């Protein structure tokens, strides 16, 4: 599959994904990311502030939160599941997330940043 999009993963997303013990769920999440890179984001809904969620209809109902940084660049902010959805919605807006990304690029530590897709 040809990659049409770039999806960059934040430390928060990677920590969540690495901690998953559900191997089938982990595989489906990795597959969804690969599909999104090819242009197929699947079921996506806005959760506000420029952040979107990709829904994965498996197990607890995994959610991948992201924002669109440019035409073909997306930043995966965090992951969660349907049950934790109300708790998952604690991230800065996409504008705040871009500021956090710039701080990271300059070598400063940021406590957290999450961003999403259009």
Secondary-structure map:
Elements (H helix, E strand, L loop, with lengths): L5 E4 L1 H9 L3 H15 L6 E5 L2 E6 L5 E9 L2 E9 L3 H4 L5 H12 L13
Parallel strand pairs: 1-5
Antiparallel strand pairs: 2-3, 3-4, 4-5
The DSSP helix count reads 4
Q: How many structural domains are formed by the residues?
A: 1
Fraction of residues in helix: 25-40%
Q: Gap between N and C termini, in Å?
A: 22 Å
Q: What's the architecture in CATH terms?
A: 2-Layer Sandwich
Unreliable stretches (pLDDT < 50, length at least 5) are 92-96, 99-118
Strand content: 25-35%
What is the strand arrangement across the widest sheet?
1-5-4-3-2
The class by helix and strand makeup works out as: alpha+beta
What's the assembly state of these chains?
Answer: single chain
Characterise this structure:
34% of the residues lie in helices and 28% in strands. By secondary structure, the protein is α+β, with helices and mostly antiparallel strands. The protein has a single domain, classed as 2-Layer Sandwich (YaeB-like fold). The protein has a 5-stranded mixed β-sheet. β4 and β5 (73-81) form a beta hairpin. The chain is globular, with a radius of gyration of 13 Å.
Concise summary:
The protein has 118 residues and is α+β, with helices and mostly antiparallel strands. It has four helices and five strands.
Which key features would you list for this structure?
single chain; 118 residues; alpha+beta; YaeB-like fold; disordered C terminus
């Amino acid at each position: 599959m040809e990659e049409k999009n770039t999806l960059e993963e934040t430390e928060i997303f990677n920590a969540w994904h690495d901690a998953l013990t559900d191997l089938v769920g982990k595989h489906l999440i990795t597959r969804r990311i690969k599909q999104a890179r090819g242009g197929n984001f699947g079921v996506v809904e806005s959760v506000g502030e420029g952040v979107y969620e990709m829904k994965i209809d498996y197990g607890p109902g995994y959610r991948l939160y992201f924002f669109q940084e440019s035409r073909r660049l997306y930043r995966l902010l965090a992951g969660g599941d349907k049950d934790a959805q109300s708790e998952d919605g604690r991230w800065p807006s996409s504008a705040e997330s871009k500021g956090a990304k710039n701080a990271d690029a300059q070598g400063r530590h940021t406590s957290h940043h999450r961003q999403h897709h259009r």
